[in-house]
Write a structure and sequence with these properties.
alpha/beta, Transcription Regulator spoIIAA, 6-stranded mixed beta sheet
């Protein structure tokens, strides 16, 4: 497992088969420090890993900066034939996704194990990259 910390954002990485599981935590989930998440995604893509599960179970809330970074990360992964799946979403974060209409774009799954398994049962749709 790899841990990376940037200001208030901490990313723990665990590779399971060909899926990266990123456990995100931090007190402040808005502002410029969240851009490290997208940089982390770009490094994974460079290493050939394009399927990512992000676990937000240790995050109570995030702001518009994180929404923008998540959307950019999703685009990066889908352009490479992969996908970004979210787990550990609180009701508060779910409401942010609903209000911004991003709930239709991001696939949220109950547990990390189910999210990882979903890449086998529901592989990324190459048409989503368009």
């Amino acid at each position: 497992m790899i841990a990376h910390t940037e200001a208030g954002l901490k990313i723990d990485e665990d590779i399971r088969e060909d899926v990266a599981v990123l456990s995100v935590s931090g007190a402040l989930m808005s502002g410029p420090e969240v851009s490290e998440f997208h940089e982390h995604i770009k490094r994974l893509v460079k290493d050939g890993i394009v399927n990512v599960v992000t676990d937000f179970s240790k995050v109570k809330w995030f702001g518009s900066s994180m929404l923008g970074v998540l959307t950019a990360s999703l685009t990066t992964l889908r352009n490479e034939g992969g996908d970004l799946r979210l787990t550990g979403i609180t009701k508060k974060i779910e409401s942010i996704l609903m209000v911004t209409q991003l709930a239709a774009i991001f696939r949220t799954i109950d547990t990390v194990d189910r999210a990882v398994a979903s890449f086998k049962t529901q592989p990324p749709d190459p048409k989503q990259a368009d």
